[in-house]
Amino acid sequence: MERIIQTLASDAMRGRSALVPEDIGKAADFIASEFKAIGLTPYAEQNYRQSFEITQLSLATQEVLLNGQQLSAENVLIQSSQPAVNWNQDAGIPILKITSEEDFSQRFRAITQQKKDAIVLIDPTFEATFRRFQKILGKGKIVEKLPQGGNSIVFILAKDLPTDYQIKFSNNFKKIPLFNVAGVLPGKSKAHEFVIFSGHYDHIGILEPVGQDSIANGADDDASGVTAIISLAKHFKKAGNNERTLIFVAFTGEEIGMYGSKYFSNHINADDVTAMINIEMIGKDAKFGENSLYVTGFNQSNLATLMQQEVVNSKFKFFPDPYPTQQLFYRSDNAILAALGVPAHTFSTVQIDQDDLYHTVKDEVSTLNIKNIASSIEAIALGTKGIVEGKVTPSRVEKLKD
């Protein structure tokens, strides 16, 4: 386990950003080599990859003129899926406002969800919040395919807009290859029934330096989960008693919108999937202490209950998600299959409300409890024994309505 997690979270992987193919490709090749050494069958392509593309939209040019004077770019945030825009006061674009009395985040979200052209004036009292949103959203937009039509929203940090203005900008459209890594352990008597073990192998890449460190290694998030996937594949291959087909998949693109799990989930028949065990951040003790994992959507199916019965003679326990307000059940890579009725749950230990190393350059192997990872892997291996051997079948999750 230490060899695997040290490799995935090493500086050589450069933070495993899904948007930098040459960096995340190194991690993909390593995971594929592990799957091959174990003896898994490739799931999609012979190199164990499941490849697809997304499109990244980024601002190419920008010019905002107010009464003939150019407004500083730091006071403008553009959210657009159109190739180019040229607006002036005669274009009839609606002008909206976020006033000082409003909830900025709520109003911002409501405006963007309308998906209509607009110019939005933001009261200068929200400058600090605006700057934070600008830093997060100003890097561009990711879409699964080239937009047809689209809309543009221009946010301007100002109370009022003069009667004479012009807003011009253009976007670049760049196709980026993405790839899940997946291997299969074929089943015997119930080969048409699938049990999926998953985790995401991408992270957030290179950040602004903290001291001399700029690489977000993502040891807990989610090299720990991928280490579990590889370890479980080795365990079940050696056991050789899987009546159901086991699919081990390392997802890409979780950090930029769960694109890898969306693609995988939309290209498999959900009715054929008996269960999905998604593993996310198991490198530290849960709030329940050692020998524990919490399960998102615990009561949505009886998967965790069945697994608890398998480890009843051990010290290990599976707990319901202690962070219900975070709505984690539909915020990780289990979400799409869960929405389609699969008992698909995420297993984790991260204390999400207290982990100050999350998404920083400090998420390194030295901060993890390796014994915690080991006990979690062992509990999942034992807990899924009856499901893997085809002796028990978890109940289905209620499907989300369209």
Structure description:
With 402 residues, the protein is α/β, with parallel strands linked by helices. The chain has 2 domains: 2-54 and 177-388, Zn peptidases (Aminopeptidase), CATH 3.40.630.10; 69-163, no CATH class. 26% of the residues lie in helices and 29% in strands. It has 10 helices and 18 strands. Strands 1, 2, 3, 5, 8, 10, 11, 14, 15, 16, 17 and 18 form a 12-stranded mixed sheet that branches. A 4-stranded mixed sheet has the order 4-9-7-6, covered by helices on one side. The longest helix has 21 residues, at 219-239. The chain is elongated, with a radius of gyration of 23 Å. The mean pLDDT is 94.
Could you outline the blueprint of secondary structure elements for this entry?
Blueprint: H1 2-8, H2 21-38, E1 41-42, E2 49-66, E3 69-70, E4 76-80, E5 84-88, E6 95-98, H3 104-113, E7 118-122, H4 127-137, E8 141-143, E9 152-157, E10 165-185, E11 190-200, E12 206-210, E13 213-215, H5 219-239, E14 244-251, H6 259-266, E15 273-279, E16 292-295, H7 303-310, E17 317-320, H8 335-339, E18 344-348, H9 370-383, H10 385-388
| Tally of helical runs | 10
N-to-C order of helices and strands: HHEEEEEEHEHEEEEEEHEHEEHEHEHH
Q: How many domains make up the 3D coordinates?
A: 2
Summed over residues and divided by their number, the pLDDT gives a mean of 94
Radius of gyration, in Å, reads: 23 Å
> Which stretches are low in confidence, meaning pLDDT under 50 for 5 or more residues running?
none
Number of strands: 18
By secondary-structure content and strand pairing, the structural class works out as alpha/beta
Major beta-sheet overview: 12 strands, mixed
Shape: elongated
Report the CATH superfamily of the largest domain: Zn peptidases
Q: Please identify the top-level CATH class of the largest domain.
A: Alpha Beta
Beta fraction: 25-35%
